[in-house]
Amino acid sequence: MGMQSVAVACGALTLCLALTTATNPGFVVRITQAGLDYAQQQGIAILEKELAQLKLPNISGKSGELHYSLSRLHIPSFRLPHSRITPISNVGLQVSISNAFAELNGDCWVKFLFIKGPGSFDLKVENISIKFILRLGSDTSGKPTISTSDCSARASKVGLHFSGKLAWFYNIFKKGNKSLLQKHLETMVCDNVAKSVHTELQTYIRTLPVTARIDDKIGINYTLVAPPRATTQSLDADLKGEFYSLAHRSPVPFSPLPLAFPSDHERMVYFGASSYFFNTAGIAYHEAGALVFEITEAMIPKDVEFKLNTSVFSAFIPQLEEKYPNMPMKFRVSTPTAPFLTVGEGGISFQPIVDVQAYAILPNSSLAPLFLLSLTGNVSAVINVRSGRIVGSLDVGRIRLSLKDSAVGTFQVHFVQSIMNYLTSSVLLPRLNARLDEGFPLPLLDRIQLSNILVRFHQNLLLLGADVRFQPQG
């Protein structure tokens, strides 16, 4: 495990990341200094425990006639009182630890000419400073990568005490032994940093869902546009942020606009979803045929005295009674084009165009087309975050109707206005909102929980802020 802890907690915050050929991202993740500070607090606490549990290898060697070996090496204490994680522009994260303290003990054995025998030692190392860089990047598939560089570990104060019958003899070589043990401890720290980041943290950040499957029809592409960008106050990750159809993946017919990300820093992490992000959802669901709904009498609440049949409509469409007397009906609701959403300071809104095809259900269960209505109206969305998912609900304003086609003669559409208002608000809208309440996953690593949610709207940007809780394993 080793030095990976600082990196894990930091990576858990900084690597909510994920490639695109477009210049501009559709989705942005920003980690503020508050988030990095939290990573530092959590990571250092875990790191102290892990360093104290390190299994150190035996050491043996010779210098002239002196043969020595050190075994059963153990670190009973490793304290890291001062540390900081700082974003470095165009590089990544610098982890700095100062004034650290470590104890190391074990058994020793020495042979020099005719003198040989065992002993034990206690080493105290103070004023240890550790510094290394976490370099964040992306591979060719758009997945995040992490590596270390420029690691250094230095100790300015070393105390060494020998025990045993030959303690007097070991003390002759105390200066050399102190230097040997100090150098070994310093090397061990940096070696363990590189090993832990490569074998454990790299594996951990692969838990980031760079593509997230929403259901059996739709997925989200959260791959990285470019390596994360460090500034003096934050770490930003630009993601593709694009919905796509699992069955028919095709290029989006427009590109994301530049995002003016606000300088908010009240929360540890911010997620910025652009208009492009939401509009690719509309395209994906439309292409997948998921924006087609049927309304039948079985869907109407039981406590409502309304029958979806030709007798109800024949009062203002006389030919219905003549051609299809007292037959059940159904409506097929679809969108001829994908809905186009606008994100502004007032929220998310759109004006979808919806086709409603009415059918009579014949005695042999076949369908007879009756009339085709075109519906449009103002729709607004309420957005929140729950359990790491963007959830929402829709509210529909006044519906406007027009008659596109009819097999039962021309009629005044205002006669069916109240019926369509009711079917929209009581049948169609609850189905849509039930799906939106299931939500869409945010790009989060394993064991990350969000709290203290903030929702703000800007031009072309939905801004979601949150504080973070990282749950270590075990």
Q: Structural class, from helix and strand content? A: alpha+beta
Rg over C-alpha atoms, rounded to the nearest angstrom: 33 Å
Mean pLDDT: 86
The best one-word shape is elongated
What is the CA–CA distance across the termini? 13 Å
Total strands: the figure is 23
Proportion of residues in extended strands: 35-45%
- Tally the helices: 8
Helix content estimate: 10-25%
Q: Tell me about the largest β-sheet.
A: 8 strands, antiparallel
Name the poorly predicted regions.
6-22
Describe the protein's architecture and organization.
- By secondary structure, the chain is an alpha+beta fold.
- The chain has eight helices and 23 strands.
- Strands 14, 15, 16, 17, 18, 19, 20 and 21 form an eight-stranded antiparallel beta sheet that branches.
- A hairpin with a 2-residue loop joins strand 5 (92-112) and strand 6.
- Helix 1 runs antiparallel to helix 2 (33-51) and helix 1 (4-14) packs parallel to helix 4.
- The longest helix is centred in the middle third of the chain and has 32 residues, at 174-205.
- The radius of gyration is 33 Å and the shape is elongated.
- It starts with a helix and ends with a strand.
- Residues 6-22 have low confidence and may be disordered.
